[in-house]
Amino acid sequence: MSYGRITGWAVNLPERVLTNDDLSKMVDTSDEWIKARSGISSRHVDGKVTEMSAVAGRAAMEMAGLAPDQIDLLLLTTTTPGQRLPASASVIQHELGLSCGAMDMNAACSGFVYGLVTAMQFMDGGMERILLIGSDALSGIVDWTDRATCVLFGDGAGAVVLERTSGQPSLLGWDLMSDGSAASILYCDHGGTIVMHGKEVFRRAVMAMTNSAQNAMTRAEVAPDEISIVVPHQANVRIIEASLKRLEIPMEKTAIVLDRTGNTSAASIPLALVDALDKDRITPGDLILMVGFGAGMSSAAAVLRWDPPTA
Ligand code: ACO
Q: Which domains does the chain have, with CATH numbers?
């Protein structure tokens, strides 16, 4: 159990939107196929991780009412940093005027949950305030002539401010997993584009999401029917449906943004979380199940009790 609670949140999406109809002019595909097989209608492209992250991070800090010198650590989860070095977190740190440690973490699409669990450990170790950002610009590593992959991905950033509380614990249970034996089914070499064996990723994703969610709920001593809302990685609505069916959690309890964002990797869970918050779908005391999976294959889940900032 950990005692960091979310007190500020914000997202940023690049301006340029690519619809399924736009894509059908670039590759042999159609709006019907993409929607039916993935649930995606449009996605934002041409984003830069450092720029999107700085905008989202600044807005999250403003919402939390924190000045730059009050942040103890910046954690950026991304698979698409702007450069090999320095870490994109350092560029964002400078942009935001923070005076603290900053580092990138890569756990592919499970990155945000890995980052959340890591941030909580730092808080348990004594840090007071952490800025956690999940951000990816997958449009830059997609082969725009490969219809099997280019229709699925997009760009975005989501940021949360975590603050230590002496009240009730908020992170009740979590699970982090990786199965490196499946690394070859989804990868991107330096300078290359995403290579994916879609069917195999799909099959393993459902298993990984289900197992990770079950492990986190078991550790939190929470039953599926006690979960108020599921915030899953937004890769394919059919993966979410299949996983929730196995978990016996109804689809109405899910936060979905993939129809208008596509798969934004480390950004997808904070984008869906903030969307649910904006729509007042989360109230104090609610139990949130965040669950992600991605290249690696990595998977991660966390059960969080919603403990919002007091006005
Ligand atoms: N438009 C039209 N037809 C297409 C397209 C397209 N964009 N892409 C593939 N097809 C065709 C295929 O060529 C195939 O044709 P064929 O039957 O003549 O050979 C047919 O559609 C069916 O293709 P499948 O691959 O069997 O389609 P499937 O139902 O499996 O859906 C998809 C494909 C959407 C990629 C699915 O497998 C999937 O979502 N997999 C998981 C992907 C994923 O989640 N990746 C991200 C992981 S997270 C991370 O870390 C990045």
A: 4-164 (3.40.47.10), 171-305 (3.40.47.10)
